Amino acid sequence: MPASRVLSFEDPACWTALDHGVRHSAWYDPRAAARLSACPETALCHPDGRVREAALRAGLDAPAFWYLVVVRCADWAEAVRECARRLLAERLAAATEETLRTLTPLVLRVGRREQGTWARDRFEAALRTPPYPALAGLRDSRDTAARRLAARITLDEGLLGVRELARRAADDLDPASARWWSDAALAALADGAECGESVDVLLGARAPLVRSAGVTALRRAGRAAEAAAHLVDRSPLVRACARWLVSQDGGDPHARYLELCADPAGIAPYAMTGLAECGRREDAGLLRTFLTHPVAAVRAQATAGLRLLDAVPADRVLPLVDDPSAAVAREATRALLPLARRFPADLLFERLAPTRPVHTRRAAFRLLKEHGGLTELRAAVAVLTDPDPALRQNGAACVQERRWVDALQPVDPGVRGELEALLHQCTHLFSDFVMTVLRGRLGLRS
Fold first, then answer.
1. Which of 369, 378, 297 has its CA nearest to residue 330?
2. What distance in Å separates the CA atoms of residue 75 and residue 52, rounded to the nearest whole number?
3. What DSSP line would sit under 383-419, residue for residue?
4. Which residues of 197-221 are buried (b: 16+ CB within 10 A; e: fewer)?
């Protein structure tokens, strides 16, 4: 069957996997060696170097041939390696756009090997040669390494204007590439490039790092007054940049946040988080008033703000573990973790009942784990039969990590019976040897 029927030409991992698979198939099944030699594609991956070299010299009028030539350029056998490199050098002499665009992802993957730098260096040199025929296609490649290389070369050569740089920063889903594009866009704006819509493109990006670059660019664009609109961004990084710009423009970020929190009916959830990030503990009283707000996002961010200010009212936040919103329950749990031992264990065990919502059971388990010792083991064993697979897995991991063991030593004779019963329910999580060692460490009979 032709390689194009079973392999993705756009995925370089397919070709290295083919090479590995054919080589090991022949090693473990000598009877397959003859069949592998008969097929041109598999002959290029044969464990016998003489077969690989003969397949290279014979050539193959098919796209798959050149992908496997790239793999053979990093071959451990010098004769095979040199033959493949001669063929690829001749192919590169033409430097066609198709060759560079299609083979670069595989070249970069093979370039990680001990003998892989030869092809990588030559492809990079070809890509850096004007008129840069393949860069446009590689900038939109599905392969991350190829996109990053194309981005680096594009930025080194200064091939794009500020608008295209901003668009690339906003659209690129790869954090590393997005940062390069946004940094280049900011540098172009700093050099006096016309701002126009470039700043708006950065501000509308999905990535917080790019949006923060857009907020920074507002000052040079003469639009510092717009920074206030980004004080309630969902990203802490963007909010920090907005506070800085408001301060640079002569404003008071803290006062602006107080204004934003003055209207409970129309408050933006992240206004409270931003207020807490200003670091004034006297604002805790205002944040507490939002713990019962009808909007779940507001309750969640009010709880997060109190945690940032280290001013969590335990008695008022604990009921939020039962909140209908999973986001609120998560924030409440994060806020209560340092205070978990203040709550009676029985109060939290009630929330592990199967009738409770799954996010409430997860929150209760996290808080019970903070108790440590026998309470932690009880909670972990209790959730081993929970209807939620993730919670069952967390319970099993908690038992196997055995952090609860240290808190139990020395073992109180009054809890030996309960400890025996709990360990009996965990036997499937340990080998016989580990269970014997564990019981001995706890002073229990084997």
1. 297
2. 10
3. GGG-S-HHHHHHHHHHHHH-THHHHHPSPPGGGHHHH
4. ebbbbbbebebbbbbbbbbbbbeeb
Q: Are 278 and 253 in contact (CB under 8 A)?
A: yes
Neighbour-count burial of 59, counting CB atoms closer than 10 A to its CB (0-12 exposed, 13-18 middle, 19+ buried): exposed
For residues 12 and 109, give the distance between their C-alpha atoms in angstroms, rounded to a whole number. Answer: 7
Q: Could you count the other beta carbons within 10 Å of the beta carbon of residue 10?
A: 12
Mean pLDDT of the region 337-354: 95
Q: Which helix (H) or strand (E) holds 17?
A: helix 12-28
CB-based contact 210:183 (threshold 8 Å): no
Per the CB < 8 A criterion, the answer to whether 141 and 148 are in contact is no
**Confidence band of 43 (pLDDT split at 50, 70, 90):** confident
Do 267 and 261 form a contact (C-beta atoms < 8 A)? yes
d(CA 216, CA 195): 12
Taking the C-alpha atoms of residue 323 and residue 51, their distance in angstroms, rounded to an integer, is 68
Token digits for 114? 């001990």
Element (H, E) at 326: helix 326-336
3-state SS assignment for residue 149: helix
Helical segments of 228-295, H only:
236-248, 253-260, 269-277, 284-288
Is 52 in contact with 44 (CB distance < 8 Å)? yes
Res. 79: pLDDT tops 90: yes
- Cα(124)–Cα(92) distance, integer angstroms: 11
Whole-number pLDDT of residue 9: 79
Q: In angstroms, what CA-CA distances link 206 with 48, 168, 173, 282?
A: 51, 12, 9, 34
Residue 430 in tokens: 């340990």
Angle between helix 373-382 and helix 389-401 axes, rounded to 10 deg: 150
Query: Helix 373-382 crosses helix 358-369 at what angle (to 10 degrees)?
Result: 160
Peptide bond into 131 cis (omega under 30): yes
Residue 215 vs residues 243, 250, 313: alpha-carbon distances, Å:
10, 16, 35
Confidence band, pLDDT 50/70/90 cuts, at residue 28: low
